[in-house]
Structure formats: C-alpha cells, structure tokens
Specification:
Its main location: membrane. By secondary structure, the protein is an alpha+beta fold. Helices cover about 55% and strands about 5% of the residues. It has one domain (about 70-520): Cytochrome P450 (Cytochrome p450), CATH 1.10.630. It is built from 20 helices and eight strands. The strands form three sheets. A four-stranded mixed beta sheet has the order 1-2-6-3. It has a two-stranded antiparallel ribbon with strand order 4-5. The chain has a two-stranded antiparallel ribbon with strand order 7-8. Helix 8 (about 160-175) crosses helix 19 (about 450-470), helix 15 crosses helix 16 and helix 15 runs parallel beside helix 19. The structure holds protoporphyrin IX containing FE (HEM).
C-alpha cells in the first residue's frame, strides 16, 4: 500500500522529472500561441472604418482640402459609407455623416465621446485651461456647463425676451439707415444680444465695444485652427524654456488681456444689474468657480454665440433673395396677424401665430448651417462600433452639413423650402421647436448650451426683418451662389450683391419711432 507520504513524494518526483516539465512548458507555449492567435483573429475581425488610402508618412494631411472641408467629407461618405476614418497631422479622425451614428456615439455613448482635443497654445496658456469650449470632459467642464445651464435653460431664456426685442429694433434701424452694411449689422445684432445679456448694457454706439469683441473673437478662432501653432503639432516644443518659446509669452499675454477686459466689463456691470455676469457672481456660492472660470463662462457666450448667430441671419438674407416666394408667404402670414399697414412690429407674443415663419427659421438652420463641419469631439477610451474599431484619442467630427443634406431625410436638400417642416405634427408649437428637426446645434453632452437663446435671437431677427423689408438682388439672382462662402469653424456667405428696402414708408416710420423709443428705454 502506498502511504500518503509516498503519493506526495511521487508527485514531487514527477514534477521535477525533465520529460513532464518539458511537456508542461510546451503546453503552456501552445496555449499562449493559441491565445495570441485568437486575439489577433479578434483584432482582425474588428477592423477600422473605411477611408481613402493614406500617405505612409503624412496620412491624409495633404488630401483634406482646407476650403469647405465638410463638402469633401460628405463626398467621402457617399463613396465609403457614412462612417469614414482619416488621419490628419498624427491624429485619428472619425467622420460621421449620418445623424444616427452621431446620436449613438456622441449621445448614448457620450461618456466616452465628450472631450475636446487639448490645445497647448489656445487651451493651456491662452485660456489657462478654463475656457469652456476647449475643456476636456471632466469635473471642470461639468461645473461650467451647469453654470451655463442655470443661465440659459429654456425657462430662464424666456426672461431675456425684452432684451432680444430691444436689440432687434436696433437691427431694423441699422438695416434701414445702413442697408449696405448688412454683414456688420448682423454681427452687431448677434454680439449686442450676448453683450447686453452678459453685462447688462448695450454695445457702444460708436462700435468701439463691437470692434474689440470681434477682434478678440477672430484672434481666438485663428489660434484654434489646426496647424495654427507648431506646438500643437509637435507638443515636445512645450518643453523648451521661455526664452526659446516666444509663442508662450504671446499666449500668456493674450490671457492677461482677456482677464483685464473681462474684469473691466464686470466692474462696469456691477452687482445690482440683472444680467448673466452679475447672476453668475451672485450664484457662485452654488458653483464655487474661481474668478478666471467665471470670466471665461461669460466670454464663451460671445465666442460661441456671435459668429454663429450672425452667419445664420446672413444666410437668411441670401435665402430671401434666391427664394422670393418664401419671403412673400411669410410676409402674408405676418401681415395677417399684425395687420398689413406696417404700424405694428411683430414680437415674441405672436410666436404661436406664425408657424410658417418659424418653419422658415428652422429651414435657414438646416439649409446653410452656421457650423457645417461641427465642432470635433474627442474620445477617451478604445471602443468598437458597428464592427469597427475606434481608438482612444480619436477626433470625432459630426458632419452637420452632410446630415442636413441627406436626400432621404430632406428631399432636394439644396432647395430652401420651409414647407418641409410644416408636415403634420411637425408644425412648431413653442420656441423649443426651433432647435428640433435639424442638427445645427451639435450633439450629446457638448450640445450648444446657448441653443435656446441663439435660436430665439435668430427668430426675432428674422421675423422682424421679414415684416419690415424686401430683399432684392442687385444683379440677377443667378449671380448669387451659396457655394461662395467662408471656410472655418463657422461658415457665412461671401459678400454678395443685394438691396434691402423697407416695405413701405409706414414700415420705415414705425422702425424709426420704435428706435427713438427704445433708445430712451436704454438710456433710462
Ligand atoms: C444660431 C446660433 C448658434 C448655433 C448655430 C450654435 C451652434 C453650436 C454648435 C454646433 C456647437 C458645438 C456642439 C458640439 O460640440 O457638438 C456649439 C457649442 C457651443 N455654443 Fe453654440 N450655437 C449658437 C449660439 C450660441 C449662443 C447664443 C451661445 C451662448 C450664449 C452659445 C454657446 C455655446 C458654447 C459655450 C458652446 C461650447 C459647448 C461645449 O464645448 O461644451 N452658442 N454651438
């Protein structure tokens, strides 16, 4: 009989015998090899999304055009399918041309797709990593967006209507007295609204405030352009000392200037004013934001709200010249509500009586989106989607242009046709509906926090312009081409020949009277 001790002994003898050891080692190696093979097979079955063949060194950097990139990306979508992969200056890009994919990745999977690519020049130094638009996903972004939400949620936005109506009287007056400065008039209107809401006072009449606001804005947009600063392409340049990095000193100087300008506006605003900035400071016991973050929240409203709003109104003017029947139909609708004599200017109280004009506003957002290429989101972790592999740190581009010019959802997409929103239950019921049915305000946790305000600003501007003016082509309308537009984060029409005329002398007098009255109100 074998004792227990013998069994243990025989195991140990067996264990150290060379043949079984060799056997065990071989089986281990075979298992590892099989595992590797399995992993490899798996990684092969999860492939990257399709796209054009990249250059071995530069990827697609020199294939992607800088002008009207969204149209090129739309073309890739038609060729390779709605999800396209590219690489640009060392970054992985995932282009989404279909809203369903954007809603899944940027919406339902937003925990992974809500960051922004970090920018050393504009983000780290110029903004001290506190500028909302550039913040990566995390606690700081959540706090800043919560503060924004407190100020810009639909219920609160209702209380800004008086300011929006006042500022739109200025727009009417500017179009009456300076019809050739359409672009500047729309920018003054857009910036004026956000300035008034943020700091409780209107832009100076001599355009000094406007020029400084637009100057900061243009500079910041340029600083964020891909490739604008070498350090954002080669981050190791950030390790160089200050005396070899003049760009760093320049970025820090811009930061100082921005802080000083914001502080000046804050001092001029005062605590008692009922405006965005004053409320932010008053409610800060809830948000616990430092002074720089507070300054950037108010500043972000300008950066993101001025160009987008102005561009939308410029596209509206072009649409009215190219599609005069839609203008006539909207004028008839407005006249039926406020009278055709030109004595009563329509306002927010008429919203529910103006479904066609409201659909016309939505169609402007769809026809020529102000941010056609979307704002890129940035992913934090590896993911798989529809059998495709999406690496961590991929820049995800929601191509709003392609989504809003999709034949299936929007037949004849290049045609400006407000009736497409007048179908059955789609007739607008409240101001919230302005942001629905199109994708012009982005997606998921980074969706535009100013959309309710921005959409209503555009609406009141459009409704009142339709009420008061006719828009005519200086030459034949065929000379006006919506494809002639700027390229960048926002897209607006290049200068086009146009004439803006009051509909009648009574309309003109009503505008002048309203302007005199509102100037008194402003000074009061
Ligand atoms: C017609 C007007 C406007 C349009 C078309 C528009 C469009 C957009 C779009 C497409 C985005 C990017 C969303 C994304 O990343 O998915 C965005 C972001 C943003 N918008 Fe607007 N916007 C408008 C007006 C405004 C206004 C009036 C404000 C402020 C008062 C504003 C504040 C912002 C801010 C702060 C962001 C950045 C949000 C973030 O990064 O988390 N926008 N907007």
């Amino acid at each position: 009989m074998t004792s227990q001790l013998d069994v243990v002994d025989s195991w140990s003898t067996l264990a150290f015998h060379p043949i079984p050891v060799l056997y065990a080692a071989c089986s281990g190696l075979i298992a590892i090899a099989l595992l590797l093979k399995y992993c490899h097979a798996r990684s092969c079955s999860v492939r990257y999304p399709p796209g054009p063949t990249p250059h071995p060194l530069f990827g697609h950097t020199f294939q992607i055009p800088k002008q009207h990139t969204w149209r090129y990306l739309e073309g890739l979508g038609k060729r390779y399918g709605p999800i396209v992969r590219l690489s640009l200056a060392g970054d992985n890009l995932l282009v989404l041309n279909d809203p369903e994919d954007a809603e899944e990745l940027l919406g339902r999977r937003s925990h992974n797709y809500s960051s922004r690519k970090s920018l050393i020049y504009a983000g780290k130094y110029q903004s001290s990593e506190k500028r909302l638009v550039l913040l990566p996903y995390g606690p700081r972004l959540r706090t800043q967006r919560a503060a924004f939400y407190q100020m810009l949620q639909p219920q609160v936005v209702g209380s800004y209507e008086t300011i929006q109506e006042l500022e739109s009287i200025r727009l009417l007056h500017d179009m009456l007295t300076r019809p050739h400065e359409m672009e500047l008039n729309t920018k003054r209107f857009a910036a004026g609204n956000v300035f008034h809401l943020s700091y409780g006072r209107h832009l100076a009449h001599n355009d000094e405030d406007l020029k400084s606001v637009l100057g900061v804005l243009d500079g910041f947009i340029r600083d964020c352009y891909p490739g604008a600063h070498l350090v954002d392409i080669f981050p190791m340049l950030d390790r160089l000392p200050d005396f070899l990095s003049p760009w760093r000193i320049a970025a820090l100087r811009k930061h100082d200037m921005e802080m000083k300008a914001s502080l000046r506006s804050r001092v001029e605003t005062g605590d008692e004013s009922d405006c965005f900035a004053a409320r932010l400071w008053q409610d800060n016991h809830m948000n616990h934001l430092d002074t720089e973050s507070l300054a950037y929240i108010a500043g972000s409203a300008f950066e993101a709200g001025t160009d987008t709003t102005a561009a939308t109104i410029m596209w509206f003017v072009m649409a009215m010249i190219l599609y005069p029947d839609t203008l006539k139909k909207a004028q008839a609708e407005i006249d039926a509500v406020v009278g055709s004599e030109g004595k009563t200017i329509p306002g927010f109280s008429h919203f529910r009586d103006l479904p066609y004009t409201t659909c016309l506003t939505k169609e402007v957002f769809r026809w020529m989106p102000a941010a056609p290429g979307g704002f890129p989101h940035f992913s934090d972790k590896d993911d798989t989607y529809k059998g495709y592999r999406v690496d961590a740190k991929t820049m995800v581009i929601p191509n709003i242009w392609a989504m809003q010019h999709n034949e299936h959802q929007f037949p004849d997409p290049l045609v400006f046709n407000p009736d497409r929103f007048m179908k059955d239950n789609d007739v607008p019921i409240g101001p919230d509906s302005l942001t629905e049915g199109h994708y012009g305000f982005g997606f998921g946790r980074r969706i535009c926090p100013g959309r309710h305000l921005g959409a209503k600003t555009v609406w009141i501007g459009i409704v009142r312009l339709i009420w008061g003016f006719n828009f005519l082509a200086e030459t034949h309308p065929h000379g006006i081409n919506p494809e002639c537009c700027t390229s960048g984060i926002t897209c607006k029409p290049e200068r086009f020949p146009h004439r803006i005329q009051p509909r009648s002398q009574v309309h003109a007098t009503s505008i002048s009277d309203a302007w005199k009255f509102s100037s008194v109100t402003w000074q009061a």
